Every structure is written in structure tokens, then in C-alpha cells.
């Protein structure tokens, strides 16, 4: 009877070890995915033609977190709690509807990009704008805020445009890239407007 109890406890121990190894593998996969995407966004001047292919195997968790962090940072500067919720919802909807429109436009024009890949790419492009929000919180002058937001806008745009442009027909690349610039310009304008009230 003691050997049966030992076998049962060994099986339980194996199951616990297997579950912990699966969890650590998933966490490692998420970490490696974030590191890989961070390298693309943090080094926008490198060749990132294979970025869309690498995005096909990644989850949607990090892009959702980035959009929620962006929305939360912009909403944190609002003084009234009811307006804070409205600002958070408005920014979140603007981010996700804007991404959907940009990707739908790219697909309609003829870019060979999957919708989830495009959403992931545009969401990872939010990272420089998140830095801009963090920098603009303590800046009072509107021109200084504009000087801080402009490089982050260009960084976001330049980090995402080459990947989607290479997946589009060469005769229509400007039509595909224009909505990306407009999308990040709208988000940058939201940063300038929201941080002016902080």
C-alpha cells in the first residue's frame, strides 16, 4: 500500500512539474516575443521585412496591454473620475477602431497582411507614443510638448511603415502608408491635447 501511495504522489509531483514547465515556457515565449518586437520598434532603421512573418505566431496579449497602458496614461491626467472613465474608453476605442481602419484600408488596397498581424504591428508602434505620454506629463509648455511628441510620432511611423509597405504592391505603397501616418498623428494629437490639461 505504501508503494501505491508513493506512485500516486510521484504522479502528482510529475503533473505539478509538467504544469510549472508549461507555465515557464509560456512566460518565456511571451518574454522572447516582447524582446523580439522591442528590438524592431527600438531599432526602426534596421531592416524589418520579416517582421510580419514573425508576428503571425504571436499572441494578442502584449498589444492589448500596450493599448490599455496608453489609454490609462492619457486618462490618468483627467481630474474628474467620470471624465477619466470617458477618456479611457474614448482613447481605447480610438486606438482599436483606428487600427482596424488602417488594416482594412491596407487589405483593400492590396497589401498581403493578415488583420491580426497588422493590429499587432500597429500596437507595438504605440510604445514610442507611450514614452511620449510619460515625458509630457511633467512638461508645461505646449511647444516643448510638441517637440517631445514629434520624434516619438516619427519613431512610431517609421517603425511600422516599412513592414506594411513591403507587403503591399509597389505601385500603391503610398496609399497604404498614408493611413498609418494619419493614425499615429491622431494619437499624437491626443497626447498633446490630453497632457495640456494635466
UniProtKB/TrEMBL annotation:
GO BP terms, alphabetized: endoplasmic reticulum to Golgi vesicle-mediated transport
TM region(s), chain numbering: 59-79, 85-109, 121-140, 175-195
Places the protein is found: Membrane
Domain of life: Eukaryota
Primary site of residence: membrane
UniProt keyword list: Membrane, Transmembrane, Transmembrane helix
Membrane-topology annotation of the record: Multi-pass membrane protein
Cellular component aspect of the GO annotation: membrane; trans-Golgi network
Cross-referenced InterPro entries: Yip1/4-like
Similarity field: Belongs to the YIP1 family.
PANTHER family in the cross-refs: GOLGI MEMBRANE PROTEIN YIP1 (PTHR21236), PROTEIN YIPF6 (PTHR21236:SF1)
Name listed for the protein in its UniProt record: Protein YIP
Species for this entry: Cymbomonas tetramitiformis
Amino acid at each position: 500500500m505504501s508503494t501505491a501511495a508513493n506512485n500516486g504522489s510521484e504522479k502528482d509531483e510529475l503533473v505539478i512539474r509538467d504544469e510549472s514547465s508549461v507555465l515557464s515556457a509560456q512566460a518565456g515565449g511571451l518574454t522572447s516575443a516582447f524582446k523580439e518586437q522591442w528590438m524592431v520598434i527600438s531599432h526602426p532603421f534596421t531592416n524589418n521585412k520579416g517582421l510580419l512573418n514573425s508576428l503571425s505566431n504571436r499572441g494578442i496579449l502584449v498589444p492589448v496591454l500596450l493599448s490599455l497602458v496608453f489609454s490609462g496614461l492619457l486618462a490618468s491626467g483627467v481630474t474628474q473620475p467620470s471624465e477619466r472613465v470617458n477618456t479611457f474608453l474614448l482613447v481605447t476605442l480610438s486606438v482599436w477602431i483606428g487600427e482596424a481602419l488602417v488594416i482594412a484600408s491596407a487589405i483593400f488596397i492590396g497589401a498581403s497582411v493578415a488583420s491580426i498581424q497588422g493590429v499587432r504591428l500597429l500596437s507595438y508602434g504605440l510604445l514610442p507614443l507611450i514614452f511620449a505620454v510619460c515625458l509630457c506629463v511633467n512638461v508645461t509648455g505646449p511647444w516643448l510638448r510638441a517637440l517631445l511628441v514629434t520624434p516619438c510620432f516619427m519613431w512610431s511611423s517609421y517603425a511600422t511603415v516599412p513592414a506594411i509597405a513591403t507587403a503591399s504592391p509597389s505601385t500603391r505603397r503610398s496609399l497604404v502608408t498614408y493611413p498609418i501616418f494619419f493614425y499615429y498623428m491622431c494619437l499624437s494629437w491626443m497626447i498633446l491635447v490630453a497632457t495640456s490639461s494635466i
